[in-house]
Amino acid sequence: MAKQYDVLFRLLLLGDSGVGKTCLLCRFTDNEFHPSHISTIGVDFKMKTLEIDGIKVRIQIWDTAGQERYQTITKQYYRRAQGIFLVYDITSERSFQHIMKWASDVDEYAPDKVQKILVGNKSDEEQKRQVATAQGNKLAKAYGMDFFETSAFTNHNITESFTRLAELVLQANKKDLDVLRVSINDKLNLAALEEEEGVCDSSSDAQKTCWC
Amino acid sequence: MARLEKLENGRQPADTVSLQTVGSQLDEESSLGSDSEVNGFPSSRETDKYGFIGGAQKYSAESAQDVPPEVLRQREVKWLDMLSNWDKWISKRFKKVRLRCQKGIPPSLRGRAWLYLSGGKVKKERNGEKFKELDSMEGDPKWMDVIERDLHRQFPFHEMFVSRGGHGQQDLLRVLKAYTLYRPEEGYCQAQAPIAAVLLMHMPAEDAFWGLVQICEKYLPGYYSAGLEAIQLDGEILNALLKRVCPIAYKHLDKHKIEPILYMTEWFMCAFSRTLPWASVLRVWDMFLCDGVKIIFRVGLVLLKSMLGTREKLKACPGQYETMELLRALEPKYMQEAYLVQQVLELPISVRNVEREHRVQLKRWRKTHGELRYKAAPRMHGARIIMDAEPHTRQDLRQKLPWHSDIWSSKADGKLVD
């Protein structure tokens, strides 16, 4: 049976309610934009396979409810992520200010090695803009993150931002990746953390390596 | 039938208006460059008998079970009699009421029946002008902001909620805002919006408000409160019940570390209103408002059992991802009205089972998480218990005439209000 992917890992979308997390995800995985959609309650996910440097990367992207109240539930999944999108809405100053809070939660609950990028969504709504591109850049720099302004509506920077985060995760786990290159027949399951025993052992064999 | 339902529920027959609004929304969107196919609107723009113009929950002959008109007529007569002698029926012949809820409440009387079953009717009459008062107040900007962002994200394929700023969305705002003012310490939780929207499809805003109050405080207390502990606890209860009802599914989920909160949050918090085909949603709510949360547990268990109940089925989902995919895309045949209702009625999970498991899981929770931060009032398992807790007379069920309401509410001050 042909191998469907070489590496498997998990990304997480975080940000205030209504910034467009679900729409970003739909655009990326299905290339669709739905003006009529429902609010996310709890957690949801979608899958997509990318090819990066000849490696088939299967990513599972978790979509979360943005309302603060849901964080007791969604925080339980931070530790399972290898990469995190911090999303705000360029037409909402408040959603931008909250990025700091989201980032500090990530520091607290996500694995140390987790990769993050900052995303300012709804870039098509220029006339309603409240957050300048420079502000986004500045914040991203302060946190040492890459930054993208995106539009799920016009499909601007969607593939770019998802691919970038996937690359960052791959780079951050380069050591394990080299192991993979040697034994290319093995699958690397970065997201194996909770499927294995919660704690991972870096000396385990390539097939069971988890990058956390 | 659909028309009768609208008239009975005190809403004007809005077919023409709503079709116009559907049209105008489509025009607005096409000017933005998206096409109607992408939005999922059927080109015919026809509403089904429940008011859906598209989406996964729209009526299909396979998903629903049609009742012959003469049977429906008989049921309507029976329900009208029950509703006019409600206190007696509930206290003396509750089993019959339950049986009739299980058979399905006639659409024309569903809104009234739900309001009576939930105790919302009594609450409304005892609280006189309360809703009007809340409705006229300014909302807390903190909550208004979140609520407003959610208005167009509830049943976007239902004629009432399809147009931005339309009457459905306006009423939804009024009901949700009123709740945040009624319980400022609770505020607003996103999952309350679909609950309120389902109620609004069947009753005017004031009634929907009291229905929402009852669901939040009597049927599912703590579900929408900060911390969301109650829903997590119910996840554990569901899991424990699954172990008894369908060990094979339980073992599979356990093995792949698929925690209940991953698949049941939306199911339970929205009382399946976003999950099932609409005919099934209505039947589940008929039973839920009569018998309480055990119905929600049973629906969850039936779905899990149907999807993951045999070795054969598990072969198709060997890993965590496949299993989660499967639970996100439930097979229509297991959600079909007749099948689902039958299975739910047959599943031997009683209130006692739920309560017993509640105690066990609460004990475990305290060990691992410490004391619950939010102390919800005890859950009330259905219409009978709600009425027993707050006995009412026929007087309480009578609509107060506007010119009486002032006298009545001043007399009632402090004694009856809430």
Number of strands of chain A: 7
- The CATH superfamily label of the domain at 226-369 in chain B reads Ypt/Rab-GAP domain of gyp1p, domain 3
Structural class by helix and strand composition of chain B: mainly alpha
* CATH domain class of the domain at 226-369 in chain B: Mainly Alpha
- What is the CATH T-level topology of chain A? Rossmann fold
- Count up the domains of chain A: 1
DSSP strand (E) fraction of chain B? under 5%
Identify the CATH architecture of the domain at 226-369 in chain B: Orthogonal Bundle
Can you characterise this structure?
The complex is a heterodimer of chains A (212) and B (418). With 212 residues, chain A is of the alpha/beta class. Chain A has a single domain (6-183), classed as 3-Layer(aba) Sandwich (Rossmann fold), CATH 3.40.50.300. In chain A, 31% of the residues lie in helices and 23% in strands. Chain A has seven helices and seven strands. Chain A has helices at 21-30, 71-74, 93-97, 99-109, 133-143, 158-172, 174-182; strands at residues 7-15, 43-52, 55-64, 83-89, 115-121, 146-149, 188-189. The radius of gyration of chain A is 17 Å and the shape is globular. Chain A starts with 6 loop residues before the first strand and ends in a 23-residue tail after the last strand. The model of chain A is unreliable at 193-212 (pLDDT under 50). With 418 residues, chain B is mostly helical. In chain B, α5 (94-103) runs antiparallel to α16 and α13 crosses α22. The longest helix of chain B is centred in the C-terminal third of the chain and has 19 residues, at 351-369. Chain B starts with a helix and ends in a 6-residue tail after the last helix. The relative contact order of chain B is 0.12.
